[in-house]
Amino acid sequence: MQTKQRDSFGSRFGVIAAAAGSAIGLGNIWRFPYVLGENGGGIFLLIYLILVTMVGIPVMLSEFTIGRRAQRNPYGSFRVLAPGKPWCLVGLVGILAAFMILAFYTVVAGWTLEYLYQAINNGFSGKSPETIKNMFDVFRSSTFRPILWFLIFMFMTAWIVVSGIRKGIEKYTKVLMPFLFILILVLDIRAITLPGAGEGLRFLFKADFSKISTETILEALGQGFFSLSIGMGTLITYGSYINKKEKLGNAALNVTIADTLIAVLAGIAIFPAVFAFGIEPGAGTGLVFKTLPLIFLEIPGGYFFSILFFLLLSIAALTSTISVLEVIVAFFSEELNISRKTATILAVLTVGILGVMVAGSWGWFSRFHVFKQNFFGIFDFTTANILLPVGGFFIVIFVGWFMGTQNVKDELSNGGDIRASYLPVFVFLVRYVAPLAIALVFMNGLGWI
Ligand code: PHE
Questions:
Q1: What is the separation of C-alpha 169 from the centre of its chain, rounded to a whole number of angstroms?
Q2: Residue nearest to atom 2 of ligand 1 (CA)
Q3: Which terminal Cβ of the chain has fewer Cβ within 10 Å, N or C?
Q4: Mean pLDDT value across residues 24-39
């Protein structure tokens, strides 16, 4: 085992804030609305909520348990807890997912910077909805801008990760998220008072069972994993920094509730506006970027609100990208025995190359397609809908069947100091419900059953 004292999160608020900082980000505000829009609206929301409860929470708590028990990165954690067994492969799949997610997520974070820049330059005012919708497509297919913003965002992420866990992450996450929350509420209020908003709310909340397709369910599962930052060891890594006195069960529950609330509130802002401005709900990855500026144009003081919003959204994205990069850095530095700085440089170089390809998906590399998908689509689909659920499946199986109930109990009750009365429910979920649900959704979604 490790001899040197590991960094750990200081205060109670620190842990939850950092894990929530990882979970809350573009996944909630950009990805959730666009995937929901493409997958039938209300029915997607319903399935999403069910899966987050039955699968999401158990996977998250399992990750915390593994990480805090082993005090290592995801790969090292499995090696510590199951020496000589192939479980560490799960950690490796997680590291692969981390590379791929960082590559495309940072690209979207770069789009956010472009929108921040536009907001500051008053680039939306006086423009028609048509022009605003076009702006996004023009920007994204340009040659250099998306790549430049991607690189800038990548460097900001790396800079924070190099500066260390506590100082770096905790400081930035704590104070800012409440402001983002308030701004989303402002957007919500404006959106639901737009003429024609009712149709958007109906789309979001009314479950139309005829719109259910096998893909809908897989997309909901993938979105749940993505949004909660689970299935690849982000929260194993963060779990390894959690103080032994923290209540892991509470942390998992609070993070999940906060994450889900933000996603639903983002939906309440976006869909009324989508319908009010005649945007296609299934418009795909550009949906939110085409819709948000239009809402700001309808708000008094929209200029300032839009700057503040895109600034906070960039920061929310940053607290997520640092959590993904942290997985890679913890892995490299602990397993290859190199410094955090060298590890970060290695990671940034690799992700940088992948990300440039992804950022150019509509520009330089627009002619590259596999199964009708560009680089961006491949990375987005493969990570959320395949790598994360596969990782999550093995994580719950490990905790449910292989880690030993006594170990799990010991970790969740902080060595017997607190009562974790939910334990039997948790064990039941990780043993049976979550793995079965993941397996069924997965095989169904890929057309295997
Ligand atoms: N959960 C983050 C978000 O919603 C993205 C993320 C995915 C972060 C996977 C870490 C791991 O924005």
A1: 16
A2: 23
A3: N
A4: 96
